[in-house]
From TrEMBL:
Acetylated. Deacetylation by the SIR2-homolog deacetylase activates the enzyme. ATP binds at residues 394-396, 418-423, 510, 525, 536. Its cofactor is Mg(2+). It is an enzyme of class 6 (ligase). It catalyses: acetate + ATP + CoA = acetyl-CoA + AMP + diphosphate. GO terms for molecular function: acetate-CoA ligase activity. Mg(2+) binds at residues 547, 549. The keyword Glycoprotein does not apply. This is Acetyl-coenzyme A synthetase. It comes from the Bacteria. It comes from Microbacterium rhizosphaerae. Residues 541-622 form the AMP-binding enzyme C-terminal domain.
Length: 657
C-alpha cells in the first residue's frame, strides 16, 4: 500500500480542458459559487429547474432528526413522468432514448414516445396484477430494453423495485426477494452472455421453489417473463405470465399520478462487512435531482447531439443512476448493450462506439486495464473520433490506466473524469467538471458543487493537505440513502456512529489522501469489503458460503491486489479430516471455487483457494487477515508477535507454495 501511495504522490501530469471544450461546456464555475453561497438553496433551485413537480415543494431539507434526512418532502412528482412523458410533451417524442445492441448483433432503436407508451402498458399490467404504491417488485433481467421499461413501470405506479444482478445465484435472489417481501418478480427466460444463452428463469423457479420447513412465508404472487433467450423454461400455471401475452394487450393510456418526494423508489442490495447484504433504500425527489444534475454537469450532456454510453449493468447502482434515471430525466440518447466486452471479438465495444457514434463513454477501471492488456491495436482498428468525454467509476483508477484511456481511446483529446461515489450516495459526489477542472490522472479531485467532503483522522479531525485518513461526507446530500431496508439500527451503526460526536459525518468506508492542492485521492476500502472488478464483495459473505460446505471446518477470505481486477478473492480453508483423507487438496480447492460461484454468483468465485492446516489467530481468537493478505500478495509476512502461535504463518506460507 505505501509504495502505491508514494507512486501516486509522484504523479504530476496535468490536463487542462481544451479551449473548444471549455467554450461549449455545460458546467461553469458559477455552480460552485452558487452552492457555496447557499448549499441547500442551490439544491432547491436545481430540483425546480431539472424536474417537473406535480406539487411544488416549499421546504428543501429537513435535517432535524439526523441521520434521517428528508429532501423536498412536501413536494410531489412522478419519477417515470419525469423520465418519459414530459419529453414527449415537449416535442421530443421522436428523439431516440435507447440504441439497444444485443450481444449476437440484433438491435433496436426506441424513441421517447415508444418507450413512454410501453411503460404505460406495463404500468397497466402491474395495476391489474395488484401491484401498487409501496409494493416491492424484484427485477432479474438481462440488459434488454425491457429492463428499463420494467423499472420505470414499477416506479410509475409508486411501487419499489429491487433489481437483482442477473449474475447472482438462485440463493442470492431468494434472500433478496425474502428480505424485501416482493410481490412480483420480472425476469426473462435467459439472455446472451459470452456467445451463449445464459438462463435466468430456472433460478427464479429455484428461488421460489420448495419452501417447506423454511419458515418463510411466500410473498411472490406472479412471475412476469420476457422471452429473450428462447431457451426452454418450466411453467407454473397461475403464477407465471409471458410479457408478450399481457403487455401488448394492455392499454397504452396511463395517467402518471404524483407521489411524495420521499416515496421509496428502490432498494438495491450491496455487500457490507457482515455476511448479510444490506438493502440500500433510495427515495424519489432528491435522488432524481442529484442523478439528473450530475449526469448533466459531470458528463457535459448536450441532449440534442450527444450519444451517451454507460457500460454498467442495471443490476448495480451505476446502472440505476447513469443508465436509467439520470440520462432519461435529462432526455439523453444512449446506447444499451446486452453482452460482454469481448464477444464475439475483442473489439466489440469499439465496434459499438463506431456504429452509434458514441460521444460520452462511462466505464470502470477494470475494463480499461483488461483492454490495456490486449493492446492498443484492437481499439485502433475502429473509428473512435466521435468520443469527446470519458468517465471512470467503481474503484481507484491507477494513473497508467487513466493515461491509456485518455491517449488510446480518447486520442489524447478527451477529458477523463474519475467519479467517486457509492450505492449509498446514490449519485456522483467527487469528480472533476470537464470544462473547468485541470485533471490529475488517478485523482477523483473535488467534491461537486453542493457536496461537502473531508478527509479526517480516527477522531474526526481534518488531516490537512498532504495527509491521508478516512473519507467522510460532512453535510447531507439530496440522493443520500434513506436507510437500510427493515433495519434502521444497522443504518445508524454502519454509517454514522463512528463520528457520532461530529453531529452528522457520514463514514464512507474508504481511505483517502489530500494532496497539496486539497484534491482527493481515493486509496481503497478500509473495512472488510473487497472491490473486485468494481463490484463490492464482503469477506464475511464469502466465508459463510465456504463454511456452508460440509467439507469445510473453517475459512478466511482476503482481497489481494490483482493487476486486472483491482482486487481478487483469495480464500484460506481448513478442511475436515474425514474429507482430507479422501480427496486431493487440488480437487477440494476447485470444488470450493465452483461452490462459492453457485452459492453467491460467479463474481464471488475466489481466484485462489488454499487448503491449509491452520489459520493465524490472536490470543482472543480473531483471525489476522492482514497476515493472510501478505501471503496472498506474495510479500514477506508482517509482524506476527500478537499471534497465539507464532509458528503458524511459516506453516501456511509453506503450504501455499
Ligand atoms: O471504495 C469505493 C469504490 O467503490 C465503493 C462503492 O462501491 P459500490 O457501492 O458498488 O458503487 C460502485 C459504483 C459507484 C466505494 O466505497 N469506488 C467507487 N468509485 C470510485 C471508487 N474508488 C476510487 N475511485 C472511484 N472513482
Amino acid at each position: 500500500m505505501s509504495s502505491q501511495i508514494d507512486h501516486l504522490l509522484d504523479e504530476s501530469r496535468r490536463f487542462a480542458p481544451s479551449a473548444e471544450f471549455a467554450a461549449e461546456a455545460i458546467a461553469t464555475k458559477e455552480l460552485y459559487h452558487r452552492a457555496q453561497a447557499d448549499r441547500v438553496g442551490f439544491w432547491a433551485d436545481e430540483a425546480r429547474e431539472l424536474l417537473t413537480w406535480s406539487k411544488p415543494f416549499t421546504e428543501a431539507l429537513d435535517w432535524s432528526n439526523p441521520p434521517f434526512a428528508t429532501w423536498f418532502a412536501d413536494g410531489e412528482l412522478n419519477v417515470a413522468y419525469n423520465c418519459l412523458d414530459r419529453h414527449v410533451e415537449a416535442g421530443n417524442g421522436d428523439r431516440v432514448a435507447l440504441l439497444w445492441e444485443g450481444e449476437p448483433g440484433d438491435s433496436r432503436r426506441i424513441t421517447y414516445a415508444e418507450l413512454t407508451e410501453e411503460v404505460k402498458r406495463v404500468a397497466n399490467v402491474l395495476t391489474d396484477l395488484g401491484v401498487g404504491a409501496g409494493d416491492r417488485v424484484a427485477i432479474y433481467l438481462p440488459m434488454i430494453p425491457e429492463a428499463v421499461t420494467a423499472m420505470l413501470a414499477v416506479v410509475r405506479v409508486g411501487a419499489i423495485h429491487s433489481v437483482v444482478f442477473g449474475g447472482f445465484s438462485a440463493d442470492s435472489l431468494r434472500a433478496r426477494i425474502d428480505d424485501a417481501g416482493a410481490k412480483l418478480v420480472i425476469t426473462a427466460d435467459g439472455g446472451y452472455r459470452k456467445g451463449k444463452v445464459s438462463a435466468l428463469k430456472p433460478a427464479v423457479d429455484m428461488a421460489l421453489g420448495d419452501r417447506n420447513g423454511s419458515g418463510v412465508q411466500e410473498t411472490v404472487e406472479h412471475v412476469l417473463v420476457v422471452k429473450r433467450g428462447g431457451n426452454d423454461v418450466e411453467w407454473t400455471e397461475g403464477r407465471d405470465l409471458w410479457w408478450h401475452d399481457v403487455v401488448p394487450q394492455a392499454s397504452a393510456e396511463h395517467e402518471a399520478s404524483g407521489f411524495p418526494a420521499e416515496n421509496p423508489l428502490f432498494i438495491l442490495y450491496t455487500s457490507g462487512t457482515t455476511g448479510k447484504p444490506k438493502g440500500i433504500l433510495h427515495t424519489s425527489g432528491g435522488y432524481l435531482t442529484q442523478t439528473a444534475f450530475t449526469h448533466k454537469n459531470v458528463f457535459d450532456l448536450h441532449p440534442e447531439t450527444d450519444v451517451y454510453w454507460c457500460t454498467a449493468d442495471i443490476g448495480w447502482i451505476t446502472g440505476h443512476s447513469y443508465v436509467v434515471y439520470g440520462p432519461l430525466a435529462n432526455g439523453a440518447t444512449q446506447v444499451l448493450y446486452e453482452g460482454t466486452p469481448d464477444t464475439p471479438h475483442p473489439g466489440r465495444w469499439w465496434e459499438v462506439v463506431e456504429k452509434y457514434g458514441v460521444t460520452i463513454l462511462y466505464t470502470a477501471p477494470t475494463a480499461i486495464r483488461s483492454f490495456m492488456k490486449i493492446g492498443r491495436s484492437v481499439p485502433k482498428k475502429f473509428d473512435l473520433s466521435s468520443l469527446r468525454l470519458l468517465g471512470s467509476v467503481g474503484e481507484p483508477i491507477n494513473p497508467e490506466a487513466w493515461i491509456w484511456y485518455r491517449k488510446v481511446i480518447g486520442d489524447d483529446r478527451t477529458p477523463v473524469v474519475d467519479t467517486w461515489w457509492q450505492t449509498e450516495t446514490g449519485a456522483i459526489m467527487i469528480s472533476a467538471l470537464p470544462g473547468i477542472t485541470e485533471t490529475k490522472p488517478g485523482s477523483a479531485q473535488v467534491a461537486l458543487p453542493g457536496i461537502a467532503v473531508d478527509v479526517v483522522d480516527d477522531a474526526g479531525v481534518h488531516v490537512g493537505n498532504g495527509n491521508g485518513g478516512l473519507l467522510v461526507i460532512t453535510e447531507p446530500w439530496p440522493s443520500m440513502l434513506r436507510g437500510i431496508w427493515g433495519d434502521p439500527d444497522r443504518y445508524v451503526e454502519t454509517y454514522w456512529e463512528k463520528f457520532a460526536d461530529k453531529g452528522g459525518y457520514y463514514f464512507a468506508g474508504d481511505g483517502a489522501r489530500l494532496d497539496d492542492d486539497g484534491d482527493v485521492w481515493l486509496m481503497g476500502r478500509v473495512d472488510d469489503v473487497m472491490n473486485v472488478s468494481g463490484h463490492r464483495l464482503s469477506t464475511a459473505e464469502i466465508e459463510s458460503a465456504l463454511v456452508a460446505h460440509e467439507a469445510t471446518a473453517e475459512a478466511a477470505v482476503v482481497g489481494a491486489s490483482d493487476e486486472t481486477t483491482g482486487q481478487a478473492v483469495v480464500a484460506f480453508v481448513i478442511i475436515k479430516e474425514s474429507y482430507l483423507s479422501q480427496h486431493t487438496p487440488e480437487g477440494l480447492a476447485t470444488h470450493l471455487r465452483v461452490w462459492v460461484g453457485e452459492q453467491i454468483g460467479p463474481i464471488a468465485r475466489p481466484r485462489d483457494v488454499y487448503i491449509v492446516g491452520e489459520l493465524p489467530k490472536t490470543r482472543s481468537g480473531k483471525i489476522m487477515r492482514r497476515l493472510l493478505r501478505d501471503v496472498a500478495e506474495g510479500r514477506e509476512v508482517g509482524d506476527t508477535t500478537t499471534l497465539a502461535d507464532t509458528m503458524v504463518m511459516s506453516v501456511i506460507s509453506a503450504q501455499v507454495k
